Amino acid sequence: MTDDRLTAIDLFCGAGGLSQGLSDAGFETLWGIDHEKNTKPTYEANHGCEMTVGDIREEEPPDLGLEKGELDLVAGGPPCPTFSLVGKSKINSLEGRDNQSDERHLLYEEFLRFVDHYQPKAFLMENVEGMLSAENENDEPVVKTIKEQMRGERQVADLDLDLNYTVRVQLLDAADFGVPQHRKRLFFIGNRIGADNPDMVEWQSHRSPRNEEEKKIKYKQDPSKRSSEDQHTLEGFVEEEEEREFPTFRKDIDSKEPWNTVADAILDLPPVSPDGNTPPTKAEEYELGPISEYQYWARNLEEEADWEDQPLLNHECRGHNMRDLTLYKLLGEGTSYIIGDIPEEHQPYRTDIFPDKLKKQNPKEPATTIVAHLYKDGHMFIHPNEARSITVREAARLQSFKDTFEFPVARTHAFKQVGNAVPPLLAQALGTAIRAEIFDRPVQEQELQKAD
């Protein structure tokens, strides 16, 4: 660990999207844990720390070689399917058991148990948008209850915890932070050192497009030829905003970029059936160099490196039957991107229930939310130009994993890991804001990349 890096642990770490983003923001993850054994090969292939496979409810916090209170950040996203949206009194009818026989804690309570053990200076907890409307057994908002528990104003089940954190809760869309995907997630940011928790609206780097021109693929340009459309005034001096490399996260950026789109993210990747195989299989070599700014970033090439020597990892999709391939071909610009708008006689599903069961991704927009269910069903993530569902690598690009991030597991496991992850770019934005506003230690991007 370099002196400039802060320490963190990642609970419910999965493949490590949160760990990756925090690393890019200047944190060193010391340990991770997840219950899914298939995440271990992926996590350990991409991160330089120990990862435990186990049930967090049965695990004691490990010795990190730090005194209590020295850990900088506890981060993690308790899985939403296990989080009760209705409270323990209603678990009985939902799960067929009573509270006496159910010795489990709600998994977010395990997150708080680890916070209590380490007493970190700050924490970052992620969960689903649906938590905002959830209520407990007393018809109280779940988010309000959790905030009170984090502040030490309410007991956490039967646990004797010492929590005294100021907390900010925000719903964020990953597209506002450079991720080529609309993905709304809820984040709890807390600290116990008297700092103001960041308002992530002030850290947004991207915005909705203002016109059709801004929806087109954003080709990478020579930085010397780029100019900023806005200027800002500081104490009477007018300064032109300096050119920014992607990604750049700063508070109150004057000129935000238009959202990154599906085209920006994946259209440099080759077809998966270059020999005309049916069903589509996979491709293992790049055929073109990167085109957009996002693609240059995703390739993660060393300066002056030859892209032709870079291996193409995980560029593989599931097979399809001819009926599916024909339906996929039917969708797109000039017809509709969702099957619900196609004439009724060609509908494979009831359109009153599944109008978007088949959805081709629009190349001029950010992708729809990548989900873990993609490993079972790819119909909602059809390639914009090819009659097939997207590959693992394309899903990873849309989640903002770089091409050098490897998923050394079976395709089904890889899809699930990608869909469950926190987008690394969103995590990097959060980590950068936490580093700057809570720890007063701005990120020096180039130095930190060298430290990696």
From TrEMBL:
Region (Disordered): 198-246
GO biological process: methylation; negative regulation of gene expression via chromosomal CpG island methylation
A Gene Ontology molecular function term of the record: DNA binding
EC number per UniProt: 2.1.1.37
Compositionally biased tracts (Basic and acidic residues): 209-233
Pfam families, alphabetized: DNA_methylase (PF00145)
Family matches, as Gene3D superfamilies: DNA Methylase, subunit A, domain 2, Vaccinia Virus protein VP39
InterPro entries: C5-Methyltransferase (IPR050390), C5_DNA_meth_AS (IPR018117), C5_MeTfrase (IPR001525), C5_meth_CS (IPR031303), SAM-dependent_MTases_sf (IPR029063)
This protein's UniProt keywords: Methyltransferase, S-adenosyl-L-methionine, Transferase
Annotated family: Belongs to the class I-like SAM-binding methyltransferase superfamily. C5-methyltransferase family.
Protein's name in the database: DNA (cytosine-5-)-methyltransferase
Source organism of the structure: Natranaeroarchaeum aerophilus
